[in-house]
From TrEMBL:
Keywords: Zinc. The keyword Zinc applies. The keyword Thylakoid does not apply. Gene3D superfamilies: LmbE-like. This is PIG-L family deacetylase. It comes from Streptosporangium algeriense. The lineage of its organism: Bacteria, Bacillati, Actinomycetota, Actinomycetes, Streptosporangiales.
């Protein structure tokens, strides 16, 4: 039986879908591949009105949740994502925040229960390709780490994905981009730590999404309440375009034969 080609990305918060996977969503959706976004939390620990942080006066979790889910809805429309599955867990907040302690925070919920829910979605959609974060959640956020853990466990339990990828921030390219931002007058841009991102030699897959850069920009704009997530929009247009026009990944496993370096997440899975 022929399986419909399907891409599933497992993300932690509303807005995470844009920078690392917005372009592959838009591109593959346009090619007729089924696209599924799983967002694990409601992003309650995000910014409130005027950028207020959790614990500060004026930060109302319910209002932040409602706002961010609306923004997600908007973003998904720009990216052309066909199916959105909300696991509805509570945002744990950044590493070290008080929100880490909440018993119902995503990072603290019973592991097997969360894996079971994701596994059921894998059974339902049967994605050949699954994308999530690396073991460190790309930058240490407890919810990103938990998303990685449940995605790996659900992939193993179901045996469904043929390929599983981690999103990657390519070290050398980002260093160049930051240099360009500074040259463009962004004096507040700091030097990056030397171990920032993933070294080029570990990146297996770079997908050209330049034709979708404008849609990614609109999707990012949809998340306007989250000042830190949309910092890129303050950069000159040329810099934005460069940052948005490719997406990089590290192939964690593949059950199909593929070249060492790919430019397509579905390499090895298409009918020839
Ligand atoms: Zn996130």
């Amino acid at each position: 039986m022929e399986r419909e080609l399907t891409l599933m990305a497992v993300h932690a918060h509303p807005d995470d879908e844009v920078l690392g996977t917005g372009g592959v969503f838009a591109r593959y959706a346009e090619e007729g591949i089924r696209t599924v976004l799983v967002t694990c939390t409601n992003g309650e620990q995000g910014d409130g009105p005027g950028g207020v942080k959790p614990g500060e006066p004026g930060h109302d979790e319910a209002a932040v949740r409602a706002r961010r889910l609306e923004e997600l809805n908007d973003s998904v429309t720009h990216l052309g994502i066909a199916h959105v599955e909300l696991l509805g867990y509570r945002d744990s907040g950044m590493d070290g925040w008080e929100g880490n302690q909440a018993r119902d925070a995503f990072a603290n919920v019973p592991f097997e229960e969360a894996v079971g829910r994701l596994a059921a979605l894998m059974e339902h959609y049967r994605p050949q390709v699954v994308v999530t974060y690396d073991e460190n959640g790309n930058y240490g956020h407890p919810d990103h780490i938990q998303a990685n853990r449940i995605a790996l466990a659900a992939a193993e339990a179901t045996g469904i994905p043929d390929k599983l990828y981690y999103t990657a921030v390519p070290r050398e390219r980002v260093a160049e981009l930051f240099a360009a931002m500074r040259a463009a007058g962004a004096a507040e841009i700091q030097d990056l730590p030397e171990d920032f991102g993933t070294p080029e030699e570990l990146i297996t897959t770079v997908v050209d999404v330049a034709p979708y850069a404008e849609r990614k920009r609109k999707a990012l704009q949809a998340h306007a309440s989250q000042g830190d997530s949309i910092f890129l929009l303050k950069m000159p247009e040329e810099v934005q375009h460069r940052a948005l026009s490719y997406e990089a990944f590290v192939r964690h496993f593949s059950r199909v034969t593929t070249p060492e370096r790919e430019d397509d997440l579905f390499d090895g899975l298409r009918e020839t």
